């Protein structure tokens, strides 16, 4: 699993790059990478019930996302920037890109009003489905994190991002264990590359492990609660921290966006939080 795209092209290269992969011829060395993420392992079937694959016309995976209520999906703004929702479907309930799952059409996209693709700030968006998503043993919402994350905490990243850069998408959902680092450490690591903001969170293990094309928009999780959304990084797994939109920093925006669409969305979030306590 390796990250998004080069900094200049975040928001436009992701869907074009990924969809074109389905037409690329494969060489033997590339095939060897299909079955593994960079430094990661296959996720067990049904173990990540909140994982969503965003696809053009329900076919070409271009970004990850997460299910947060029966009709609400969370992803990165750069994944859906300037996209018409009628061309997108959300696939849930499968760990394979080429088999299984249920497709849901998208009714509306709400991108953060202050999303800035020049510096990759406020990289968050919400998708509303036309129909309510049916929950099951392999489909369920994830609770959103509203508490600080400390340095060194164990995190879990999942996605169908390419296993090398450049590379092709694996069929199987992959997972990777990471460690949270501080804002100051992340800012220092990227000081000559791109700005890092306090509304972002960073994670790292070592060179050879990280996120890549196709992982964008996917969930970063701590103990079953989503703390981040894959935003940007240096393609791919080069030993620099990957940068995620910090869910905690956008909880008010998320709740307002959901409330403005339908109060039941927020009631669902609050019920999940109450049940945890």
Model description:
This protein has six helices and 14 strands. It has helices at residues 13-21, 28-33, 77-80, 183-189, 251-261, 263-276, and strands at residues 41-42, 51-56, 60-69, 72-75, 88-92, 102-111, 125-129, 143-144, 154-159, 174-181, 200-204, 219-222, 225-232, 242-246. The strands form two sheets. Strands 9-10-11-14-13-12 form a six-stranded antiparallel β-barrel. Strands 2-3-4-7-6-5 form a six-stranded antiparallel barrel. α5 crosses α6.
Q: Strand sequence of the main sheet, in spatial order?
A: 9-10-11-14-13-12
In angstroms, what is the radius of gyration? 17 Å
How many DSSP helices? 6
Going by helix content, strand content and strand pairing, the class is alpha+beta
Helix percent band: 10-25%
Tell me what portion of residues adopts beta-strand conformation: 25-35%
Query: How does the overall form come out from the CA principal axes?
Result: globular
Distance between the termini: 34 Å
Give a count of the beta strands, DSSP E runs of length 2 or more: 14
Family: Belongs to the peptidase S1 family.
Pfam families: Trypsin (PF00089)
Organism: Loxostege sticticalis
Protein name: Peptidase S1 domain-containing protein
């Amino acid at each position: 699993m390796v990250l998004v795209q080069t900094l200049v092209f975040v928001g436009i290269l992701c869907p074009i790059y990924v969809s074109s992969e389905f037409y690329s011829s494969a060489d033997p060395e590339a095939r060897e990478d299909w079955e593994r993420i960079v430094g990661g392992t296959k996720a067990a079937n049904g173990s990540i019930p909140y994982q969503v694959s965003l696809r053009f016309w329900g076919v070409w995976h271009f970004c990850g996302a997460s299910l947060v209520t029966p009709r609400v999906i969370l992803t990165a703004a750069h994944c859906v920037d300037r996209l018409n929702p009628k061309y997108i479907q959300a696939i849930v309930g499968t760990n394979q890109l080429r088999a299984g799952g249920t497709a849901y059409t998208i009714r509306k996209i709400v991108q953060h009003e202050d999303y800035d693709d020049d510096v990759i700030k406020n990289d968050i968006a919400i998708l509303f489905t036309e129909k309510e998503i049916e929950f099951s043993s392999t489909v369920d919402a994830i609770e959103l994190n509203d508490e600080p994350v400390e340095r060194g905490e164990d995190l879990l990243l999942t996605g169908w991002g390419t296993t090398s850069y450049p590379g092709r998408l694996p069929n199987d959902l992959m997972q990777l264990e990471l460690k949270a680092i501080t804002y100051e450490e992340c800012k220092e690591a990227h000081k000559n590359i791109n700005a890092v903001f306090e509304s972002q969170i960073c994670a790292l293990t070592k060179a050879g492990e990280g996120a890549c094309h196709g992982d964008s928009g996917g969930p970063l999780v701590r103990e079953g609660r989503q703390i981040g959304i894959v935003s940007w990084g240096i393609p791919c797994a080069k030993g620099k921290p990957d940068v995620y939109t910090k869910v905690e920093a956008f909880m008010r925006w998320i709740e307002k966006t959901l409330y403005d669409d339908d109060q039941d969305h927020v009631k669902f979030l609050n019920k999940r939080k109450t049940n945890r306590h």
